[in-house]
Amino acid sequence: MPAYSSNLETYSYFMKSFKFFLAALALAFSTQSCKKAETQQKQKPVKVSYVEISEVEREQELRYSATIEADNTAQIGFAVSGIVNAVLAEEGQYVKHGQLLASLDATTFSNSFKIANSSYAQTLDLYDRQNQLYKKGSLPVSEYISIKAKLEQSEANKKISAKNLADCRLNSPMSGIITIKSIERGSTAGPGVAAFTIIKTDQVYAVISVPEVEVGTLRPGMDVSIYVPTLDENLKGKINIINPQADQTSKTYMVKAKINNSNQKLLPGMLAEVAVFPKKNKKVIVIPASSVARDADNFTYVYVINNQNKAVRKRITVGKITGKQDLIVEQGINSGDKVVVSGVTRLKDGAEVTF
């Protein structure tokens, strides 16, 4: 009897354990089924729209940041020494070619010119009388040569004195804007000391730096479009200088485009944007800007739909923005690819899509 009771207890314990195992198995199966259902629900195809990419022919456009530069800059000063008695121009003033800017006290030079002029007149009179004698054969050749040399020397002295007197007046060598005034009335001026700095601005340059891969497409005389944000104006210009020597640091080439600035609106140092249009057209791939996104590494990418109707993420290299807010793609996708243009934010790599 005791043996039978022991077997019964063992059997009862076994059945309870087996039932617990079945319950746990059922719960695990139920949980797994729920997860699978949730996964299937998450993998429901995402509705998107797309465009099929094709190459289009566009006028090639190259854009560069530019700085406005004066056509010419000149430092000017007096050729003689003296005391400044008049200053007739100020910094920021526009002056014309030949305009009087400043003058020196010319008393000493005026007196020197009078003496030289008088000496020349006397020597010329003496030469005329002795020349008549020489023609008649009444004057030795040596005396004639001597008086002729004195006349030439006297004439040279007169010209030097006249120039020194004229140099007491400082005139502008060109039309432009005075950027620096270095003299004041009563100060001493002398040769080699700049009195004014003038920039010529009737014509100015838009100066750009062009990469090696693009400089070969540019030619002198090529038309360019210049946008100046400060003025909010679009201007026209022409390339006239392409420096053949690359910058040793940036490996770019300096290019200058000349711009008419007769209205004096453009000032040196202003920033601008230059657009160049090489003559030959170029086939490019263009996509809507709305189709482009950025990943965690700040790389741009798009979703391309494959033959299984799945969205495949592809990194791309974008170029210029066109006037319609489309992007030119330089690398990453090909003609014929189907690029998602709406529903991009709901996608992940490999997601199934529907239309």
TrEMBL record:
CzcB-like barrel-sandwich hybrid domain sequence ranges: 73-198
GO CC annotation terms, alphabetical: efflux pump complex
GO MF terms held by the record: efflux transmembrane transporter activity
NCBIfam families with a match to the protein in the record: RND_mfp
Pfam families according to UniProt: Beta-barrel_RND_2, BSH_CzcB, YknX_C
Domain CusB-like beta-barrel: 204-276
Domain YknX-like C-terminal permuted SH3-like intervals: 284-354
Similarity section: Belongs to the membrane fusion protein (MFP) (TC 8.A.1) family.
Organism domain of life: Bacteria
Protein name, UniProt field: RND family efflux transporter, MFP subunit
InterPro entries: Beta-barrel_RND_2 (IPR058792), BSH_CzcB-like (IPR058647), RND_pump_MFP (IPR006143), YknX-like_C (IPR058637)
